[in-house]
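Whiteboard transcription, Tuesday session. T.W. wrote the C-alpha cells on the left side:
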C-alpha cells in the first residue's frame, strides 16, 4: 500500500487545481456573459478557442452528461490517434502500449466496462480476450468529433458503466461548399533514432439533386502513417520474495506500426427528413521485434548480492494485423406528427497473427550475476554473459492466431411531440436487435532438440545498461527448413484459448421528455434480454474434448434526468441511470486447461455487471470558449468480476493452482470532476491571445474480493484516484503555441491471490507533457511543429511497495513537423 507521503505527493498538485477552480467560480459570477442556448452538460477537450466553441455548440444538442473534443481541437495537439485525443477530457485516462495511448478508461472504470460506437453503431473488439476497443486503430484525421457520454438515456445501449465513446466521422454538412485539406508529416523518435512519414487528407462537397439545393453531400477522408520507434524495458513481473527477486527480464523492442484509415460518407437531406450511408475502414499493422535477456535466480537475489542463475536470451517477432470495418445505413423522416428514425449497422473487427516466432530461446548458467537497483534491476556479469558462444539453443516456438468479432444490428425509434396541461412533451419509444459473434483460433508449434549454432549479431543500443548481441530471426527460421510443422503441433497450447461465442441482445425502451418552464425532465425504462451460447475446448492431461455453455438473462433499466436553467448561461443537472455490462468473452469462455495439478479456465456462469449511477452537474458558460463545470458522481456496482484461484476448494481441492474468474458482491466509485477553460480575449494585446484550461477528477473506489479462506477490500482495478489536464497556450492569426500536461495517479493493475495483498501490482503515477506550435504561412497553408512526451515520461509498475519493480519502460520523446493545406 502507498505510504502517507506518497499519497500527498500524488494529490497535491490537483488539490491546488481544485482550490483554483473554486476561486474562479467567484470571478465568473461577476463576468460579462453572452446569451447561450440551453443544452447538455458537457466539459470540453482543450484546443483552439474556435474548436472549443465548436464543441460547445455540438454538445448543446445532447441530452446526456458528456465530454466532447472537436476535430479542430484534435488537430491542435500532438495526438497520434483517437485514444490520445480523448485523454484531454475530464475523467478520461489511457492504457498505453509502448508509450502510445490505446485503451480508454472513464471515471476509473476499465476499458472492458466502456463501449465504443462509430456513427451510432457498436464497434466490436479485435483482441480475443477483450470487449474494449483499442482506439489507436482510428487515425484522428478521420474523426469529426469525439464524445464521451457519461450518463445514459433509455434510447441508448446500456452497455457502459464508465462511459460510451461516440466517434462521429466527417460529413459534407460540416462545411459550406467545397472543403478539402491535406497534411504531410514527418516525425523522429529520439530513443531509436528513427524517422516516420504520415500523410492524410479529406474532401467534402454538397450537390443539388432531385430539385433540391445543396441537399446531397459526399465526404471522404484517408490517412496513412508508418511509425517506427522502440522502447527499452526491464521487468520482474512482481516475482519478489521479500526484498529478493526471483526473475528479471531485460527487453529491447523495435517496433513499426503502419496505419491506414479511410472513410466515405453520403448524406441526403429534404425538408422533412435526412438519410445517410457512413462507412469507415481502418487497418493497423503492428510489426514487433523483441529481444530479451532473462534470468531465473537459483535463490532470491538481493541488491548488490552476487548470485547464480539461468540466463536465457529470447527472440519474439510478429506481424499482427488488425482491421475494423463499420457500415451504417439510416435516416429519419417526418410522418405527420411522428418522427421515424431507423438504422441498420454492420461492424467487423479482426486480428490476424500469421506464424511468427513467439519464442526462440538460448540459455546458459552463470554464477557472477548482480544488480544494483530494485527499481531498474538490470543485471550484469562478466564478458561471458554477452558472448553468443556461451548459449545453447533450447527451443523455438511459433504461433498463429485469428480472432473475428462481428456485430449486426437494426434499430427503430419513433417520437412525437404533444402538449399536455399547457406543457410541451415528447414521447419516444423503440427497440433494437443485436447479433454478435466472436471466434478465436490459435495454433502453436513447439520445436525442441534442434542443433545449436551462432544465431546472434551486433550489439543492442539498450539505454538502461549493457545488453549484448541480438538474435537474427532469419537464422532462427533456417533451423526449421525441411521440418514438417504438423509433427510439432502443441495440442495443449493450441486448444487452450479456442472458442466461439454468440451473444444475442433484444431491447425495448419507452421514454418521455417534459419541459416545464426552465426545467426539463427525461424519464424512461429500458429492457434488455440477453441470450448467450459458447463452445470451447477442454484439455485434461492430453485429452481434448469440446465444452459448451448457455446462459439467458434480462434486465429492467430505469433512468431519470433533470436539467434546470438557473439563468441563460448556467445549467444545473442531475441524473439517476442504470447500466449493464456483460463479462468479456474470455472470462465467460467454457474452455478448460488442466496440466497436472495446475488448471486455468473461464467461468460461463458469470453474471453481468450492473450499476446504479447518480450524477449531479453545474456548469457556467461565459465569454469566448469559456466554461466552468463541476460534477459529482456515485456508482454502485453489483457482480464485480475479478481473477481468483480456487485451488484447495471444491473440485479443485487437490490442485496447486486453479485460476479463473468470479463475481464479487459489490463495488462503489464516487468522486468529483472540475473543469475550466477560457480565451482571455478581454485582456489588452498581446495577452488577449492567451487560451488556457484545467480539469481534474478526484475519486475514490472500494471493492470486495474473497476466496474460500479470505475476504479483503481493494481499489477498483485500473482506477486512478486523481486524473488531470492543464493547458496553456497563446494564439493569433499568424502564430500559436500550446503546452499541455496529462496526469494520472497510481492504479491497481493486477490482483494477486486474495490472501496475498503484498503481491498486488500497481501502475505508478504518470505525467505526460506535450508541446504544439503552428505558423500560418497564409490563410490556406499551415506549418506545425509538435513534441509528444516532451517530459520523457516512463512507464513504471511495482509490487506492493514502490521500490520493487514489476515493470520499467522508457520510450523517449517524438518530434513532429507537418505542413497542412486547407481550403474551405
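and on the right, the sequence the group agreed on:
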Amino acid at each position: 500500500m502507498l505510504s502517507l507521503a506518497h499519497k500527498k505527493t500524488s494529490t497535491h498538485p490537483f488539490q491546488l487545481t481544485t482550490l483554483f477552480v473554486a476561486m474562479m467560480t467567484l470571478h465568473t459570477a461577476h463576468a460579462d456573459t453572452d446569451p447561450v442556448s440551453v443544452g447538455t452538460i458537457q466539459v470540453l477537450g482543450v484546443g483552439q478557442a474556435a474548436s472549443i466553441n465548436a464543441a460547445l455548440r455540438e454538445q448543446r444538442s445532447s441530452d446526456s452528461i458528456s465530454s466532447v473534443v472537436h476535430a479542430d481541437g484534435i488537430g491542435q495537439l500532438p495526438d497520434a490517434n483517437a485514444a490520445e485525443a480523448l485523454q484531454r477530457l475530464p475523467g478520461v485516462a489511457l492504457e498505453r502500449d509502448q508509450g502510445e495511448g490505446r485503451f480508454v478508461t472513464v471515471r476509473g472504470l476499465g476499458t472492458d466496462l466502456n463501449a465504443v460506437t462509430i456513427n451510432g453503431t457498436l464497434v466490436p473488439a479485435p483482441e480475443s480476450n477483450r470487449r474494449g476497443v483499442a482506439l489507436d486503430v482510428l487515425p484522428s484525421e478521420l474523426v469529426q468529433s469525439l464524445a464521451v457520454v457519461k450518463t445514459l438515456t433509455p434510447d441508448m445501449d446500456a452497455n457502459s458503466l464508465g462511459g460510451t465513446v461516440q466517434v462521429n466521422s466527417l460529413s459534407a454538412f460540416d462545411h459550406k461548399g467545397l472543403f478539402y485539406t491535406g497534411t504531410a508529416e514527418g516525425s523522429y523518435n529520439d530513443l531509436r533514432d528513427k524517422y516516420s512519414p504520415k500523410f492524410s487528407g479529406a474532401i467534402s462537397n454538397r450537390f443539388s439533386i432531385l430539385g433540391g439545393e445543396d441537399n446531397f453531400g459526399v465526404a471522404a477522408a484517408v490517412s496513412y502513417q508508418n511509425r517506427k520507434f522502440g522502447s527499452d524495458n526491464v521487468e520482474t513481473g512482481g516475482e519478489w520474495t521479500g526484498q529478493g527477486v526471483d526473475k528479471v527480464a531485460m527487453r529491447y523492442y523495435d517496433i513499426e506500426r503502419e496505419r491506414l484509415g479511410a472513410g466515405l460518407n453520403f448524406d441526403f437531406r429534404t425538408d422533412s427528413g435526412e438519410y445517410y450511408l457512413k462507412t469507415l475502414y481502418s487497418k493497423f499493422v503492428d510489426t514487433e521485434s523483441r529481444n530479451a535477456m532473462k534470468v531465473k535466480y537459483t535463490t532470491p537475489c538481493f541488491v548488490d548480492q552476487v548470485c547464480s542463475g539461468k540466463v536465457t536470451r529470447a527472440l519474439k517477432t510478429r506481424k499482427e494485423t488488425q482491421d475494423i470495418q463499420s457500415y451504417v445505413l439510416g435516416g429519419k423522416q417526418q410522418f405527420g406528427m411522428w418522427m421515424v428514425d431507423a438504422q441498420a449497422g454492420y461492424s467487423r473487427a479482426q486480428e490476424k497473427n500469421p506464424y511468427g516466432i513467439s519464442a526462440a530461446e538460448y540459455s546458459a548458467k552463470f554464477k557472477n550475476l548482480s544488480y544494483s537497483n530494485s527499481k531498474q534491476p538490470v543485471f550484469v556479469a562478466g564478458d561471458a554473459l554477452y558472448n553468443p558462444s556461451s548459449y545453447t539453443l533450447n527451443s523455438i516456438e511459433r504461433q498463429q492466431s485469428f480472432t473475428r468479432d462481428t456485430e449486426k444490428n437494426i434499430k427503430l425509434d419513433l417520437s412525437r411531440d404533444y402538449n399536455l396541461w399547457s406543457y410541451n412533451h415528447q414521447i419516444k419509444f423503440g427497440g433494437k436487435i443485436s447479433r454478435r459473434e466472436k471466434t478465436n483460433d490459435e495454433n502453436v508449434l513447439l520445436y525442441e532438440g534442434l542443433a545449436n549454432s551462432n544465431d546472434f549479431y551486433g550489439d543492442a543500443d539498450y539505454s538502461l545498461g549493457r545488453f549484448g548481441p541480438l538474435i537474427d530471426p532469419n537464422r532462427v527460421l533456417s533451423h526449421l527448413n525441411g521440418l514438417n510443422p504438423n509433427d510439432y503441433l502443441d495440442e495443449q497450447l493450441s486448444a487452450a484459448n479456442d472458442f466461439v461465442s454468440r451473444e444475442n441482445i433484444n431491447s425495448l425502451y419507452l421514454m418521455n421528455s417534459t419541459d416545464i418552464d426552465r426545467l426539463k425532465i427525461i424519464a424512461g425504462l429500458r429492457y434488455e434480454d440477453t441470450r448467450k451460447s459458447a463452445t470451447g475446448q477442454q484439455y485434461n492431461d492430453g485429452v481434448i474434448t469440446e465444452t459448451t455453455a448457455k446462459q439467458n438473462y434480462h434486465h429492467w433499466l430505469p433512468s431519470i434526468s433533470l436539467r434546470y436553467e438557473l439563468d441563460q448561461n448556467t445549467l444545473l443537472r442531475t441524473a439517476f441511470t442504470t447500466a449493464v455490462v456483460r463479462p468479456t468473452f474470455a472470462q465467460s469462455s467454457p474452455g478448460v486447461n488442466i496440466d497436472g495439478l495446475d488448471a486455468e479456465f473461464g467461468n460461463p456462469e458469470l453474471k453481468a455487471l450492473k450499476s446504479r449511477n447518480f450524477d449531479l452537474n453545474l456548469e457556467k458558460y461565459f465569454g469566448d470558449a469559456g466554461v466552468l463545470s463541476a460534477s459529482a458522481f456515485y456508482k454502485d456496482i453489483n457482480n464485480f468480476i475479478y481473477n481468483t484461484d480456487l485451488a484447495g476448494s471444491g473440485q479443485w481441492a487437490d490442485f496447486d493452482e486453479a485460476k479463473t474468474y468470479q463475481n464479487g458482491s459489490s463495488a462503489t466509485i464516487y468522486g468529483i470532476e472540475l473543469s475550466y477553460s477560457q480565451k482571455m480575449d478581454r485582456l489588452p494585446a498581446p495577452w488577449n491571445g492567451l487560451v488556457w484550461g484545467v480539469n481534474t477528477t478526484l475519486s475514490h473506489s472500494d471493492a470486495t474480493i474473497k476466496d474460500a479462506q479470505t475476504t479483503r477490500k481493494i481499489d477498483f482495478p485500473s482506477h486512478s484516484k486523481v486524473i488531470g489536464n492543464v493547458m496553456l497556450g497563446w494564439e493569433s492569426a499568424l502564430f500559436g503555441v500550446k503546452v499541455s500536461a496529462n496526469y494520472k495517479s497510481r492504479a491497481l493493475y493486477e490482483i494477486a491471490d486474495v490472501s496475498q495483498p503484498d503481491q498486488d501490482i500497481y501502475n505508478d503515477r504518470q505525467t505526460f507533457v506535450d508541446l504544439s506550435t503552428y505558423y500560418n504561412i497564409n490563410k490556406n497553408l499551415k506549418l506545425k511543429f509538435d513534441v509528444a512526451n516532451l517530459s520523457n515520461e516512463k512507464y513504471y509498475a511495482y509490487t506492493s511497495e514502490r521500490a520493487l519493480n514489476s515493470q520499467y519502460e522508457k520510450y523517449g520523446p517524438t518530434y513532429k513537423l507537418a505542413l497542412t493545406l486547407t481550403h474551405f
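Someone added at the bottom: DSSP finds six helices and 42 strands in the chain.
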